[in-house]
Amino acid sequence: MPPVFDTPAIDYHAFAPEIAMVVTLVVLLFVDLVFEERGRWATATVAGIGLLASVVPVLSLAVDGADRSLFGGAYVVDNFALVLKALFLVAGYVTVLISTDYIADGDYYEGEYYFMLVSSLLGMTVMASARDLISIFVALEMLSIPAYLLAGWRKRDLRGNEASLKYYLLGVFASAVMLYGMSLVFGVSGSTLLVDINQAISRGVDSVPLVTVGIVFIVVGFAFKVSAVPFHTWAPDTYQGAPTPITAFLSVASKAAGFAALVQIVFIGFLGREDVWAPMFWVLAALTMTVGNLIALRQTNLVRLLAYSSVAQAGFMLAPFAVAADIPADRGGVGAATGAVVTYLLIYAGMNLGAFAVVMAVARKTRSAEISAYGGLFAYAPGLAVLMGVFVFSLAGIPPLAGWYAKFVVFKTLLDAGTVAAVTLAVVAVVNSVIALFYYASVARQMIMEPAPEAETARVRVPGSLGAALGICAVATLAFGAFPGLIAQLGDLALLGVLP
Amino acid sequence: MDGLDDMALTAAVFLPMVGALAMMLTPREHESDHKVIALLTTLATLAVGVYILFRFDYGRADVMQFDVNASWIEVINSRYILGVDGISLPLLVLSMLICVLVVVYSWNHFPEPHNPKAFLILILVLETGMNGTFVAQDLILFFVFFEVVLLPMYFMIGVWGGEARQYAAIKFFLFTLFGSALMILSFLALFFQGGQTFAIAELAAVASDNIPRSTQVLIFGGLFMGFAIKVPMFPFHTWLPDAHTQAPTQGSVILAAILLKLGTYGFVRIAIPILPEAAMAWAPWIGGLAVVGIIYGALGCLAQSDMKRLIAFSSVAHMGYVMLGIATLTDFGLNAAVFGMVAHGLITGMLFFVAGSVKDRFHTLELSRLGGLLIKSPRMGWILGFCAMASLGLPGLAGFWGEFPAILAAYNPAEGLSEELFRGYMVVAAVGTVLAAGYLLWMFQRTAFGTPSEEFAETEIAGMHWPEYVAWTPMLILIVVLGIFPNLLFGLTTDAVGSALAALGGGN
Q1: How many domains does chain B fold into?
Q2: Phi and psi at residue B112, to the nearest 5°
């Protein structure tokens, strides 16, 4: 019988968020093409509205509630995917808000900028649903390639070039390593579907070394993406050289996409082989939080400080992976670890974007991100100083700001597993929270307890869109801190629909 | 009336926040508005406290009253549970009272760099944290309130403090955070081992049955770190002298009067009722550290040349008595401990107030440069003398009832604890009272007696201001009243303490 090619049945509702984003992309190109130079501001508006509009189908899918599986399971829309898609879209919207004046003032290419931004976001939303090695890889490249370009957007700036080049070279290297790992895993299991891979490698014992190398390479590839130590070296330079809105975007959305991929690959594909990945994640988590924090202690530039702090934060997000397999099934098993990672990502997005938004607002006046330039901020811009205080102390995990709950769920996961390794990691995390407080508090100290340099006390004007971004982040940070139930439910719902 | 009762505790906790929000919306230039709003807010909160005092059923002081139980974080089964019993009530009302008095005292005593708006907002946020800690009956809620006080105190010390304020502020912050991070791990361990709940009452009922003894001891260790740093117990006390010396007067008063009590309260409310067996195992060590703290604090006092630092070290010693009372695990000892908390709050709070006013007038607290306060400002001098007497435990004043019963309790510790050991502690603690008399009288002598030193001989020293009268009178009255009628407080705490020790067979 000759092979029959069936056209796959496409569920357009499941694809609706991505379709909306593609439409946004087309409109963006069109607006950029037709409008004169002075009309280019419209591109920011279009991007913002487009992203918000894309949230609508995410919500309708959530209300609908059913898990949808397309292309033989390669593309799945479940609660996990929806929560992350919503996160990417909202984080993207906030990025557009904080970009608006920066890009318009800086004589950059506005239309192309938003086009790239939305393309990268499209890759991320696809990533949230990708349950197949090929779709994961495609999503990864889709989100990375525009990001390489965005990192070098300040093309007349040497640091900008360095940022882009470093990010690009290491990113491509990571992709290559990962691709090699994927090819090994495919070779052993004979499938690219994560569910099938799981079936194959958890029972196949005859090719242990190959599977091990494959898993290690894939995890290492994503360790680059989430800037885990020792694969973090690109992050500080890239963060410092990239335009600040892009730094915020990379440190939040791009990192979240990396974690989304890790959750899916590890908890679906490699479940049952925790003998290989659990110790790896333990070491990665402990190293990442410790090294990130220790280097952050010595930073004098706020953007670099936030870069290292976000490396350290990634360490906390890696910790649940290290113990996921030890959590008893009646307490949620890997689902509990997934919930912890997602909750952390959601809270982290709000507070980190907020911190960068303040950096941008202050830089409009001081033209500097050096910590010393923040002296006396409380005297001439008390609102911004208080907001910065809220964000950095939230990052430090001080109640009643949202960050405490993020740290709390990680501790909870670690103690839930209850093994010696898990409790040790929890103690490492405790020590790191204290170290981290030191540099976060030093930012607050500079703003509030030091005098302004050269008695520079003119007020800071915050443009409307930046103010809106600050408002969104501040409300999220305060509300989720006082009522963690809101976010906890999202994190708890974000379960992977298709587990082996 | 039931509706009002349900709201009472929530109002007690969040009214200060409402005031703080109102102040945030008021422009910074309107200083008198800020003072009025802050005063009204703290008074309104105190009024809630008085309402609770009147409506409290004193016959059932051992059970939680005015309880609220609403859902908060469902996913982790943590609930919004508030309640007061005989242990919480005096501390809650003390906290409300101190906040009012601090705001009154601040009226014309704003430390540099001034900014009453920010300063008063911080006091109100502190009040929310403190009141919340004393009424929270859920571990996570307790943790959040316990931590809420950190940021305002950090800024209060770091912005309005003395020369080395930044160092003192971050030291305070880091020490406390380290303790509370271990504490939250212990809370989680209790959750997982003790029956998937954070409610203190439920945990007290089931935890000791569900958790193996060795694990209990380990969990208690984490709780101990969290609370002992806050108390602070020797050897975790090193942040305290720095914080006290550098903090502005108001900060020192709140720190001494209330914040330190959060730690001891944690022992009485959480550590002992939930993990009685582990408390038994730890008690000899706690008692030992407590008496070391008593002697060490006293010796530290004798070595100080700065009045505020001396009072700070005396806090270490006095909290040692409180901890000794707790370590005996008897209702006698715990009663003494709760009394000691209140008495120390009033007396040491007063001492810091007076020290602050002395500093305002002499611009120094160097003992070698002070002297002759009784000549320069007789009333303030006598008040200082009164507080020194109260602090050294003179019978008839409140300090006595915190110290003496604690020492007495050590004579006869709970069944299962070594009598010889605790009697040894008792002797050491008794020696401590002699030292206390020594350093307090020495301090009083050097500041108040004699003639003013040459540099101040010609300087005109202002008499007492009205905010000082208003702020101090209630505390002085309470010190006397509690000294003469200790049963006002003991009557309230006895039953509650009994239920805290219920797991140990009701104490002995």
Answers
A1: 1
A2: -65, 145
